[in-house]
Design brief:
This protein is of the alpha/beta class. Helix content is about 35%, strand content about 15%. It is built from 13 helices and eleven strands. The protein has helices at about 5-10, 10-15, 20-25, 55-65, 80-90, 105-115, 130-135, 160-170, 225-230, 240-250, 255-275, 300-305, 330-345, and strands at about 70-75, 95-100, 115-120, 140-150, 175, 200-205, 215-220, 280-285, 290-295, 315, 325-330. It has a seven-stranded mixed β-sheet with strand order 1-7-6-5-4-2-3, with helices on both faces. It has a four-stranded antiparallel β-sheet with strand order 8-9-11-10, covered by helices on one side. The longest helix is centred in the last third of the chain and has 23 residues, at about 255-275. The chain binds pyridoxal-5'-phosphate (PLP). The site of pyridoxal-5'-phosphate (PLP) has 13 residues, from helix 5. The site of pyridoxal-5'-phosphate has 13 residues, from helix 5.
């Protein structure tokens, strides 16, 4: 493939001399007296700056995710990685990105913040992707194509061969956001990083791993792309408490796997039960921990549920999602409460 990473990078980032923090400069040597970073010697456990590259946590993650340490970036949520993609590759006012539509809203918001033209390309009625349409929307100023699989808010995994076509035929960056891949049977793209130098895969601690409060997102990509993320990120972007708690979570993967299997079992039950409701017009196929359902009046049902202290996501105003609610799979009790309330709903 005809891929030249240096041609994609913004000039100012290419030439950037990154901030060198106190901890970087003595790296690799042994020390026990730290008078280099103007920290307080008091308040042990919190007084020292955290590891800027999160080596311990990445080492553990590497084993779990089967990705080498040097191909992992950790950020303050996936949102940090999304923003960094723009700041590294996209020249404000000149460059553009292409994305599937509908999808996760942060790709567009970050484009707008960074003054980058955002080119949405509609999925078909069943929310499938057509690589040719995305490729046709690119031009010489397109730096990135955004894909999300399983997609949010539609729930379905996109066809792998179409994503592979984007990776093979587009000479810029292809981001595949796999925030929900733990709930899907599809092969994750992070296993195939070696095959595509233009691939960035996003994962998160916020969904299957039950750690949305920690704010910890992952990007997997070539060593060269990860080096760019590390060059541009804030020096101490992942705080000490998050690094510790995340490392702890990884010691008990059996518990996480148990949650995922409970949620996927409960999902099958919910899809069947929801389909039987008088208000339900269609339940869409899902590979995530939520599903999208078309109902007869999404906004009035949304408001009715709020009156019953139940919150779902009203996607009525999203393209191709008219009268759709997006419903997260909760505990069996929470799911039953939703179904019970909806059985009582009168038009
Ligand atoms: C929830 C979600 C994320 C997670 O974002 P964080 O900032 O890591 O919490 C990323 N991508 C998609 C598509 C999501 O739905």
């Amino acid at each position: 493939m005809n891929f030249d990473l240096t041609k994609l990078i913004r000039n100012n980032i290419q030439e950037l001399e990154p901030y060198s923090c106190a901890r970087d400069e003595f790296k690799g040597r042994k020390a026990n007296v730290f008078l280099d970073a103007n920290e307080s010697p008091y308040n042990q456990g919190f007084n020292r700056y955290p590891d800027p590259l999160q080596e311990e946590l990445k080492t553990r993650l590497s084993t779990v995710k089967h990705v080498p340490v040097e191909k992992i970036f950790l950020g303050n949520g996936s949102d940090e990685a999304i923003d960094l993609v723009y700041r590294i590759f996209c020249q404000p006012g000149t460059d553009n990105v292409v994305a599937i539509e509908p999808t996760y809203g942060m790709y567009r918001v970050c484009a707008e913040i960074n003054d980058i033209e955002y080119r949405p390309v509609l999925l078909d009625e069943d929310y499938n992707i057509d690589a040719s349409k995305l490729l046709a929307a690119t031009d010489q100023h397109t730096k990135v194509i955004w894909v999300c699989s399983p997609n949010n808010p539609t729930g379905n995994a996109l066809q792998r061969t179409e994503i592979e076509r984007l990776l093979n035929e587009f000479h810029g960056i292809v981001v595949v956001d796999e925030a929900y891949s733990d709930f899907s049977q599809e092969r994750p793209f992070r296993y195939d990083l070696a095959q595509w130098p233009n691939l960035i895969v996003l994962n998160t601690f916020s969904k299957a791993w039950g750690c949305a409060a920690l704010r910890l997102g992952m990007a997997f990509a070539s060593t060269d792309i990860i080096a760019l993320f590390n060059k541009v990120k804030y020096p101490y972007n992942v705080n000490q408490l998050t690094q510790q708690k995340a490392s702890e979570m990884l010691q008990d993967l059996a518990r996480i796997n148990q949650w995922v299997s409970l949620i996927t079992q409960e999902r099958e039950h919910m899809l069947l039960a929801f389909n039987e409701l008088p208000i339900c017009q269609k339940v869409y196929h899902t590979d995530a921990n939520f599903f999208l359902a078309k109902v007869n009046d999404a906004t009035s049902i949304y408001n009715y549920l709020i009156d019953h202290a139940i919150v779902v996501r009203n996607r009525n105003r999203v393209t191709l999602c008219q009268n759709c609610l997006r419903i997260t799979i909760g505990t069996p009790q929470e799911n039953s409460a939703l179904l019970a309330a909806l059985r009582q709903y009168k038009n």
